[in-house]
Amino acid sequence: MKQTQQKWPKSYPTGRTARRAGGARALVGTALACALLSAPAAGTAQAAPRGPVPVGSWKATVVREGATYDVTLSFATDRSVCLVSPAGASKGRWHHTGRDAFDYRIRELWHDAGGALEGWVDIAQSAKRTGAASFAGSGTSTVHGADGTVVDTVPVEVTGVRTGPPDGSACG
Questions:
Q1: What is the pLDDT of residue 9?
Q2: Residue 25 above 70 pLDDT?
Q3: What CATH number matches the domain at 12-42+52-164, 2.30.130, 2.60.480, 2.40.128, 1.20.1070?
Q4: How far is the C-alpha of 39 from the C-alpha of 67, rounded, in Å?
């Protein structure tokens, strides 16, 4: 798996680049999802209101082989999810799987500077609330080339902290 980093688009954080670029690249978007969190600044976490897990917006940290980066996830009451990563904004769906547990699936498209499709990642995560305003999850991200061939499948860990109500505006 030493070649894994070579399979990601240049816009995708890998290894040393991801650690150096940190938050700046995270604002642009990322391709793996999903899934999430580093400790937030004091006072930024918000307890989730009573209601469906995981409705709200979440600052999350994604950890995969060779990279760690920040993303934003927004889970809506209609079961839609919006991911904002270094790759841009992507939509998906989530559903309950048990008490404080949920799964989500997102397809994250990658485009080159000219707008041509470079490929995509199918993100599949299973997560569980770990507190009133936090969750942790794990799953896989399957990387596809522009022609649809599977290029790689990688394990991904995500941790998140709730930052407020749902806001899927980035996904349209």
A1: 53
A2: no
A3: 2.40.128
A4: 17
